[in-house]
């Protein structure tokens, strides 16, 4: 509602998956379809997820009204060098320990992890825009190409990422399900994409958008993956969890979250804070939420089973109403 009303006081940002751009709710751009929208609290979160700032409403302009905003702005302005806690303490007017604790409580990550996430997001965005690989690595704040590869969580070398999956061979299949159209994509290493969409064309487009330069070909034999993924939602069978190879690409933390999601039994849910505690990092609630939002393999990695602490559905990459349908089909209980 805040986006539709163009509310300038809304404490959030929204990103459009079809354009790769994120905006303020007050932006005068055309309102997108709800299924194509993702919400973020911070510009850095949207950038870390691969979105770029709108040139019209400039959503990444940093506010500096409180200590957290001041330290965030300082980190964002100096991504090319180490940022000691002592220096951040001076900027915020707080002790180094308090700055560290503030970041962990509010963002779920340390200042160092925050800086790394910003660098990674900036690199991914630059590569998607076609910038030279070497220039993109250094402009993102990485000191060397090896650090760029290690720290960006690309799942492949920066060069391969910049080429939109060039030389990747991905087979795919689409099929209708009770939850809309489903598309699966698989490399020789395993399943790399499972998305939900309104039409078959939209489903196929989501795969091609994620891997624009990959060799993508229809593979009818993969339809069995669609059927199996839907079956684990709609059928109450012991051991229905799919056992198959996955080609998941993300940071070490994202991979931990995605693996934890696969352990949530059908018919049950977890809150983001519960999942953070199960991972041994109770302050990483926001980081867990971000990892869920960037899941590339719906149903098989069941991020729909994670809800707000109050039981609210919060967001879902493939639409909140679809999340509701999935949980109802599973007879979920929190």
- Quaternary state reads single chain
CATH architecture identity of the largest domain: Orthogonal Bundle
Low-confidence stretches: 130-138, 140-159
The third-level CATH topology of the largest domain is: Arc Repressor Mutant, subunit A
Mean pLDDT: 76
Structural class: alpha/beta
Q: Number of domains in the coordinates?
A: 4
Strand order of the largest sheet: 3-1-2-4
| Biggest sheet details | 4 strands, mixed
Morphology call: globular
How far do the termini sit from each other?
A: 27 Å
**SSE series:** EEEHEHHHHHHHEEEHEHHEHHEH
Please report the first level of CATH classification, the CATH class of the largest domain.
Mainly Alpha
Tally of DSSP β-strands: 10
Number of helices: 14
Rg, alpha carbons: 20 Å
Jot down its keywords:
334 residues, four-stranded mixed β-sheet, alpha/beta, DNA Methylphosphotriester Repair Domain, single chain, Double Stranded RNA Binding Domain, 14 helices, Arc Repressor Mutant, subunit A, 4 domains
How would you describe this structure to a colleague?
With 334 residues, this protein is of the alpha/beta class. The protein folds into 4 domains: 1-42 and 52-57, DNA Methylphosphotriester Repair Domain (3-Layer(aba) Sandwich), CATH 3.40.10; 62-162, Arc Repressor Mutant, subunit A (Orthogonal Bundle); 169-223, 2-Layer Sandwich (Double Stranded RNA Binding Domain); 252-330, Winged helix-like DNA-binding domain superfamily/Winged helix DNA-binding domain (Arc Repressor Mutant, subunit A). The chain is 40% helix and 14% strand. The chain has 14 helices and 10 strands. The chain has helices at residues 43-48, 67-77, 85-92, 96-107, 111-128, 133-139, 145-151, 158-162, 200-210, 223-234, 252-261, 272-278, 285-293, 320-330; strands at residues 13-16, 21-23, 37-40, 52-53, 169-177, 180-187, 190-197, 215-218, 270-271, 306-307. The strands form 3 sheets. The protein has a 4-stranded mixed beta sheet with strand order 3-1-2-4. The chain has a 4-stranded mixed beta sheet with strand order 7-6-5-8. The chain has a two-stranded parallel ribbon with strand order 9-10.
């Amino acid at each position: 509602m805040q986006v539709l009303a163009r509310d300038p006081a809304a404490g959030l940002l929204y990103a459009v998956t079809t354009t790769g751009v994120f905006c303020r709710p007050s932006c005068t751009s055309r309102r997108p379809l709800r299924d194509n929208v993702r919400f973020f609290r911070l510009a850095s979160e949207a950038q870390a997820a691969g979105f770029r700032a709108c040139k019209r409403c400039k959503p990444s302009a940093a506010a500096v009204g409180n200590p957290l905003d001041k330290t965030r702005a300082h980190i964002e302005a100096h991504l090319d060098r180490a940022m000691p806690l002592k220096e951040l303490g001076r900027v915020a007017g707080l002790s180094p320990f308090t700055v560290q604790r503030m970041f962990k409580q509010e963002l779920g990550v340390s200042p160092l992890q925050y800086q790394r996430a910003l660098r990674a997001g900036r690199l991914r965005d630059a590569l998607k825009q076609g910038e030279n690989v070497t220039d993109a690595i250094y402009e993102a704040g990485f000191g060397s190409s090896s650090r760029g590869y290690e720290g960006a969580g690309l799942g492949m070398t920066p060069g391969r990422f910049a080429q939109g999956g060039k030389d990747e061979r991905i087979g795919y299949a689409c099929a209708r399900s009770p939850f809309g159209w489903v598309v699966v994509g698989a490399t020789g290493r395993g399943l790399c994409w499972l998305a939900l969409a309104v039409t078959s064309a939209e489903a196929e487009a989501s795969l091609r958008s994620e891997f624009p330069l990959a060799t993508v070909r229809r593979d009818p034999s993969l339809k069995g993956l669609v059927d199996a993924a839907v079956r684990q939602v709609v059928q109450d069978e012991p051991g229905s969890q799919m056992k198959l190879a996955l080609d998941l690409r993300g940071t070490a933390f994202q991979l931990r979250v995605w693996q934890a999601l696969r352990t949530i039994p059908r018919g049950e849910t977890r809150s983001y804070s519960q999942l953070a505690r199960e991972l041994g990092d109770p302050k990483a609630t926001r980081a867990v939420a971000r990892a869920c939002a960037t899941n590339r393999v719906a149903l098989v990695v069941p991020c729909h089973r994670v809800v707000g602490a109050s039981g609210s559905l919060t967001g879902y990459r493939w639409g909140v109403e679809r999340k509701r349908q999935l949980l109802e089909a599973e007879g979920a209980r929190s």
